[in-house]
Amino acid sequence: MDLENLIKVLKERPGIYMGRKDRCTLDNYGMFIQGFLTGKERTPFEETFLKEFPEFVRSKLDVNLTRFEFWFETITDRTQDEEEAQYVFFALYEDFKLMRGEYLERSDLSNTFSKTV
């Protein structure tokens, strides 16, 4: 499974991974995603997500931090409730995927092509 499929399942059927409804919070999603990515060989997009998504979130939400904060904490602290936090995360993820994913896919194709020639 890759990050894209995991996030799709978390969005559509969070109980599969979170179990109970009270565990379906953005903080729990975030920790689960971080652990998922830590324990596997990552795709180029997943590497980029880990490295760049936190700053992308801060930039989009116009946040300047003076201390360390996970991306899911940044979102949760700046939204009204859990429902809004999840909505903001999924929207930001889609924006990030469109912005970074297309670039990485083209990059991967050129790397694959150069290896076969």
Structural summary, described in words:
The protein is mainly alpha-helical and 117 residues long. It has one domain. It is 74% helix and 0% strand. The chain is built from six helices and no strands. Helix 4 packs across helix 6. The longest helix is centred in the last third of the chain and has 35 residues. The relative contact order is 0.12.
Unreliable stretches: 109-117
Number of helices: 6
Q: What's the gyration radius in Å?
A: 15 Å
Distance between the termini: 30 Å
What's the shape? globular
Number of strands: 0
Order of helices and strands: HHHHHH
Helix content: over 70%
Number of domains: 1
Give a quick rundown of the structure.
The protein is mainly alpha-helical and 117 residues long.
Q: Characteristics of this structure?
A:
117 residues, mainly alpha, disordered C terminus
What's the helix and strand layout?
Blueprint: H1 3-12, H2 15-18, H3 26-38, H4 44-60, H5 71-77, H6 82-116
Helix pairs in contact: 1-3, 3-5, 4-5, 4-6
